[in-house]
Amino acid sequence: MSSTAPESRVVLVTGGNRGIGRAIAEEFVAQGHQVAVTARSGTGPEGTLTVVADVTDAASIDAAFTEIESKLGPVEVVVANAGITRDMLLMRMSDDDFTQVIDTNLSGAFRVVKRASKGMMKARFGRIILVSSVVGLLGSAGQVNYSASKSGLIGLARSLTRELGSRGITANVVAPGFIETDMTAALPTEQQDAYLKQIPASRFAQPQEVAKAIAWLASDDAAYISGAVIPVDGGLGMGH
Ligand code: NDP
Fold first, then answer.
1. Which of 37, 106, 117, 163 is 20–30 Å from 61 (CA)?
2. What is the CA(194)–ligand 1 centre distance, in A?
3. How far is the CA of 54 from the centre of ligand 1 (A)?
4. Which UniProt keywords apply (predicted)?
5. Atom of ligand 1 nearest to the CA of 16
6. Looking at residue 46, which CATH number applies to its domain?
7. DSSP tag of 105
8. Does residue 191 belong to any structural domain of this protein?
9. 205: Cβ below 6 Å to ligand 1?
10. β-strand 229-232 against 126-131: which pairing, if any?
11. Do the domain assignments include residue 201?
């Protein structure tokens, strides 16, 4: 049986300077793709082009894409990974705590995807991958802002699938469970222990485990998968 080498793509990962985004960027580099990352501070891993961008600012996203297009070519694979938490019980959550999280996690993904779709529609090819969370579907006490932002990404991906599916563009969601990064290291030990008890795999995951699933969704093998929510959570969200 003959096989052709997978095509090298131009990939953009938002928030690629640390955590899950950094692991995603490393995985795409290892697979031979041309990878750009956005970072507000610091830089992406070796072999990537770092562009400064804040996903809450449409002008900075536009400038980042223009720079990537001139240096690497049009973006073919976009991973909307940048995200924040501002955990607080509802009664104590301010408007600002709510809107900041929505503005980064959900509106940020919208801005990035909207800008990316221009080139993808022209090329009649694209892979859009949105990094959600298991709590987007399960809900989570103390995270009404975060959980709402992450479930919003599912509606976003499914509507994109309906709008852009006929142009060779797929849009999928990856929903990680508990991954060891700065974000989860900030949680109190009791909360970490409580999570661990609920995870059938009985362990937390490494960022690379999310990166592998995302790289596969971007591959030619995943051309007929769109509007899907792929859990990488050790079974925590079963029944979604
Ligand atoms: P980290 O806190 O380690 O990293 C977050 C990344 O997002 C950083 O690169 C950060 O950049 C970037 N970022 C935040 N706000 C903005 C912004 N306004 N503009 C541009 N970049 C921004 O988080 P993780 O790696 O753990 O999380 C990555 C994604 O995965 C997030 O969307 C998160 O919600 C999701 N996730 C994480 C899970 C986990 O267990 N860790 C579980 C489920 C989902 P900077 O360094 O400049 O702050």
1. 163
2. 22
3. 12
4. Fatty acid biosynthesis, Fatty acid metabolism, Lipid biosynthesis, Lipid metabolism, NADP, Oxidoreductase
5. 9
6. 3.40.50.720
7. I
8. no
9. no
10. unpaired
11. no
